Amino acid sequence: MNWLNSEAFTVLDQKIIWSDMIGNIFGLAALTLGWRRSVWTWPVQFLAGLILFGAFFGHLAGSAGKQVVVMLVAVYGWWQWQRRKGEATDGQIAVRFATWRERAAMIAAAAVGTVAVALLFEAFPTLSWDPWPDAYIFVGTIVAMYAQARGMVEFWFAWLLVDLVGVPLNFANGYAFSGFVYVIYGALVLWGLRDWWVRSRSTTVLEGAHA
């Protein structure tokens, strides 16, 4: 799997690594499928994590471990969406805004998780080259994936917050392709946010009509 960590090509003096490129292409596909509320978003996210795990395993234990967590959450998301297929009139899952309690729980989990993971990275420097931003992105990604699995519109807001740190961090660490991809993520997130927001209002209206 060493070829995954080799250079694919160079753009504007930035080296593009195969694993960085392939993993993030799958990530973009997964986000697009998530926007469309297709259950196939989860297998694609799992595959993206598997590719990046193969690239990191053996020399970047922390990064490899993070991909294992991402793959586990993808399995959880697949299970959730399989159970909820057909809730919406188009046969896909229905989406909604989180309750205030759910929002508070996710914010608390993100804050505590970021601090805990960052302290772990600081205690074991080989796990991460930039502990606090890396922890923020990792925990934020997990929270976003959880919200997506539950069909919450807040999923998109979580991704936007991850993007704010992910773009400059990836460019700074030489992962140019990831940086470019995070910019595209931002555009997809805004479109997806609008779509889920409108659908959540429609769902609420329908539920109110049936009450």
From TrEMBL:
Annotated Pfam families: NMN_transporter (PF04973)
Q: Which domain of life is it from?
A: Bacteria
Main subcellular location of this protein, as a coarse class: membrane
Q: TM segments?
A: 46-79, 104-124, 136-162, 174-193
User: Would the keyword Transport turn up in this protein's UniProt record?
Assistant: yes
Membrane topology for this entry?
A: Multi-pass membrane protein
Statement: the UniProt record of this protein carries the keyword Cell membrane: yes
Keyword annotations from UniProtKB, A to Z: Cell membrane, Membrane, Transmembrane, Transmembrane helix, Transport
Q: Which InterPro entries has this protein been placed in?
A: NMN_transpt_PnuC (IPR006419)
Where does the UniProt annotation locate this protein? Cell membrane
Give the UniProt family note.
Answer: Belongs to the nicotinamide ribonucleoside (NR) uptake permease (TC 4.B.1) family.
Supply the name of the protein: Nicotinamide mononucleotide transporter family protein
